[in-house]
Amino acid sequence: SQYFHELTGIAVDPQGNILVTDWGGKVGLAQVIRVDRATGKETLLSSNAMAVNAASELFAYPQGIIANAAGEIFVADPLAYGAHGGGIIGVNPINGRESEVSSNAMPVNSASQYFHAASQMAFNPAGNLLVADWCQWSSTCGSVIEVNLQTGKQTDVSANSLAVNATSEYFSEPVALAVNESGTIIEVQEAGLGGPCEHGCGGLVSVDPATGKETELSANSMPANASSELFVQPFDVTVYGYTPSLNLGVHGGGGHSGQLP
Fold it and tell me: How far apart are CA 122 and CA 128, in angstroms?
């Protein structure tokens, strides 16, 4: 059961097992693997090659993975669904079946095609999915997108283009996010926040979930870090002691109800 190739995301299911996405080293060879944390045993949970996915080979380059208290698994894939900016794939934890959860190609998003490159995810207190949408070296894209897991509808929560951020355009390469107990979003910027790095070093930006206002939370360029400029290219973030995905139960914000196909 030597399934590991190139791991890209990690989560924990309600039983305490570790879930990882592995892109396989080549687009289309990706897998979701379950790891028994007590023994280290790897079990293949889902891949395009499985018979159950013969008509739904959705994995291309999966990145983030997350599970809720019902055991439902969601994968962010920036190359899924062809040239449509990637999206969110649901994975049935019993049979490994992949299903479309949200993409720009869905009719419900005909006027809200916000995905450029869906990267990492977190749940908000309402039970909807928040997605860090990556964009390289540009202040014109990159955002936090909310996905209603029942309908797949995307809502732009925060972006530099919002009027509220006219003087606080901190998004450059948003790659991951987390949510604290008050619902504040903390997003990792891989670059763009000043310092000696080629495209500006990375750091942390907080986002008001109600208004989308971006605030610089931590960066090498801040006076407080004059003698501790530790950020180079941060890639992920978590809030210690708080795991919304496992505290929510089955989604209250219009999410799935343990019935992924």
Answer: 9
H/E run at residue 245: helix 244-247
Q: Give the pairing of strands 143-147 and 154-159.
A: antiparallel
Q: How far is 226 from 83, CA to CA, in rounded Å?
A: 43
Residues 25-48 as b or e (16 or more Cβ within 10 Å = b):
eeeebbbbbbbeeeeeebeebbbb
Task: Enumerate residues 6+ apart whose C-beta is below 8 A from 38.
Answer: none
> Is 0.85 surpassed by the pTM of this model?
yes
Q: Which residues pair with 178 in a beta bridge?
A: 186
| Separation between Cα atoms, residue 51 and residue 30, nearest integer Å | 15
Asked if 161 and 212 count as a contact pair (C-beta separation under 8 A), the reply is no
90 torsion bin: left (phi>0), alpha (psi -120 to 50), beta (else): beta
Q: Tens of pLDDT along the chain (261 residues)?
A: 688 888 999 999 988 999 999 987 777 788 999 999 899 999 999 999 999 999 989 999 999 999 988 889 999 999 888 766 789 999 999 999 999 999 999 999 999 999 989 999 999 888 889 999 987 655 566 899 999 999 999 999 999 999 999 999 988 888 899 998 889 999 998 888 877 787 778 899 999 999 999 999 999 989 999 899 889 988 888 887 666 555 443 333 334 545 567
Three-class secondary structure of residue 89 per DSSP:
strand
Q: Are strands 73-77 and 87-91 parallel, antiparallel or unpaired?
A: antiparallel
Q: Are 259 and 230 in contact (CB under 8 A)?
A: no
